[in-house]
């Protein structure tokens, strides 16, 4: 069998159906951990197609199974996220969101539709591979603690244990027909920083009688900004930024408290833990030396997303076989975050990007109210993932 041509033909055959699925999902988006109707819709399709599945994982999550010959030989997991964002859509399209203030502005509708297309292809070709493929339809990528974490806690990577997990994400910086990969560290951990400096406020013209919480806050900001440069290894990208400060005083009033919020991101879990400790030490030292107190809350977010070197190198080779060398790009690291990282901390993982723009016109960016995809990217998405999956299942 000519695997490449067969998958191309099947992707073409299922394209209209997958496009219709994507448009349905886009029209009826749901927020994180509230994907009830989305889950019901996916279940209805799986039932219609006669696919074995489990539902109710992390409330709305679903795992479907395609078994080839000798199902216990090996297991591969494929993942798509299902949730939308609290964004009001401004696109003028027939499938525009009808759920006020909610939109698939990050392309999870395309992820889910593409994975369903991959499922259809692999179901047709199940006599051509050995092992089992698990299709993970995951809720709540956009909101802490993240649907991936909850699904893992509820056993999604067990019974059977996958040797590898693969995910793809829309990427408007690439035209449709292309994909992009990055081996090794790819996406950063993400933590939210919340600090409150408390002291004795008062008249701004009488500094000897007050604790200048505003001045202390400014000193803490400067000191925190220096931490990555001073203690993070030079080869580990690290960002610490305070983006919000509230000092509700006046021209002649220093407030009793100042609140600050920021983000901390890095590409190394050891570095992450070390800098968490340094943030607390530095902030407390500055505050206490000037008679103030500081409350520090580091809200730990998603971990570092690491693409396994071996499986990603193979995925790149398979993608080039399927799409051609010219349609597989090398990507840079990203300081954005993804809860797919939880899977990558547990088992070998490959997370790659799917080009979604028109070849001549760059589409609007992710998370914008006018984000959309060129729907031909769905054909690339389902075909590429199906080809990569079959190559792994046949241990090429």
Overview of this protein structure:
The chain is α/β, with parallel strands linked by helices. It has 2 domains: 3-188 and 303-393, Aminopeptidase (3-Layer(aba) Sandwich); 191-300, Alpha-Beta Plaits. It is 35% helix and 25% strand. It contains 9 helices and 16 strands. The strands form 4 sheets. Strands 1-2-4-3-5-16-6-15 form an 8-stranded mixed beta sheet, sandwiched between helices. It has a 4-stranded antiparallel beta sheet with strand order 10-12-8-13, with helices on one face. Strands 7-14 form a two-stranded antiparallel ribbon. A hairpin with a 3-residue loop joins strand 1 (52-57) and strand 2 (61-67). The longest helix is centred in the N-terminal third of the chain and has 25 residues, at 3-27. The protein is elongated. The two termini are 15 Å apart. The relative contact order is 0.19.
Output the keywords:
9 helices; 2 domains; 25% strand; alpha/beta; Alpha-Beta Plaits
How is the secondary structure organized here?
Elements: H1 3-27, H2 36-49, E1 52-57, E2 61-67, E3 75-81, H3 108-124, E4 132-138, H4 147-153, E5 164-175, E6 179-181, E7 184-187, E8 191-198, E9 202-203, H5 213-231, E10 238-246, E11 253-254, E12 257-266, H6 269-289, E13 293-300, E14 305-307, H7 309-323, E15 328-330, H8 341-344, E16 349-357, H9 377-393
Parallel strand pairs: 3-4, 3-5, 5-16, 6-15
Antiparallel strand pairs: 1-2, 2-4, 6-16, 7-14, 8-12, 8-13, 9-11, 10-12
Helix pairs in contact: 1-3, 1-9, 3-9, 5-6, 7-9
Find the count of extended strands (DSSP E, 2+ residues).
Answer: 16
Helix-strand pattern: HHEEEHEHEEEEEHEEEHEEHEHEH
CATH class of the largest domain: Alpha Beta
Helical/strand content category: alpha/beta
**Rounded Rg:** 24 Å
Cα separation of the termini: 15 Å
The CATH architecture category of the largest domain equals 3-Layer(aba) Sandwich
Task: Provide the CATH topology of the largest domain.
Answer: Aminopeptidase
């Amino acid at each position: 069998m000519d695997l490449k041509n067969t998958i191309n033909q099947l992707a073409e055959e299922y394209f209209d159906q997958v496009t219709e699925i994507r448009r349905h999902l886009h029209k009826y988006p749901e927020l994180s951990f509230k994907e009830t109707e989305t889950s019901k819709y996916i279940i209805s399709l799986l039932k219609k197609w006669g696919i074995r599945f489990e539902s109710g994982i992390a409330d709305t999550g679903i795992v479907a199974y395609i078994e080839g010959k000798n199902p216990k030989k090996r297991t591969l997991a494929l993942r798509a996220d299902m949730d939308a964002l609290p964004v009001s859509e401004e696109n003028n399209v027939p499938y525009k969101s009808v759920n006020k203030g909610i939109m698939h502005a990050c392309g999870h509708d395309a992820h889910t539709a593409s994975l369903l297309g991959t499922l259809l292809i692999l179901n047709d070709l199940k006599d051509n591979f050995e092992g089992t493929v698990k299709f993970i339809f995951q809720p709540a990528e956009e909101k802490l603690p993240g649907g991936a974490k909850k699904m893992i806690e509820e056993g999604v990577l067990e019974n059977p244990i996958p040797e590898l997990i693969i995910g793809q994400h829309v990427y408007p910086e690439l035209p449709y027909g292309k994909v992009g990969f990055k081996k090794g560290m790819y996406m950063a951990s993400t933590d939210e920083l919340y600090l409150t400096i408390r002291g004795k406020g008062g008249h701004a013209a009488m500094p000897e009688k007050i604790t200048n919480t505003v001045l202390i806050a400014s000193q803490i900001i400067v000191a925190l900004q220096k931490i990555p440069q001073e203690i993070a290894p030079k080869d580990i990208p690290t960002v610490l930024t305070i983006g919000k400060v509230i000092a509700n005083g006046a021209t002649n009033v220093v407030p009793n408290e100042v609140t600050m919020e920021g983000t901390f991101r890095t590409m190394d879990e050891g570095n992450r833990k070390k800098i968490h400790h340094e943030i607390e030490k530095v902030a407390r030292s500055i505050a206490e030396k000037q008679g103030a107190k500081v409350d520090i809350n580091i809200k730990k977010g998603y971990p570092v997303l690491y693409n396994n070197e071996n499986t990603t190198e193979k995925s790149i080779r398979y993608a080039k076989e399927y799409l051609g060398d010219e349609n597989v790009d090398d990507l840079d690291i990203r300081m954005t975050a993804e809860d797919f990282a939880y899977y990558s901390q547990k088992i070998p993982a490959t997370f790659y990007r799917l080009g979604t723009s028109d070849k001549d016109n760059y589409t609007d960016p992710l998370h914008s109210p006018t984000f959309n995809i060129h729907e031909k990217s769905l054909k690339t998405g389902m075909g590429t993932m199906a080809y990569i999956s079959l190559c792994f299942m046949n241990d090429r």
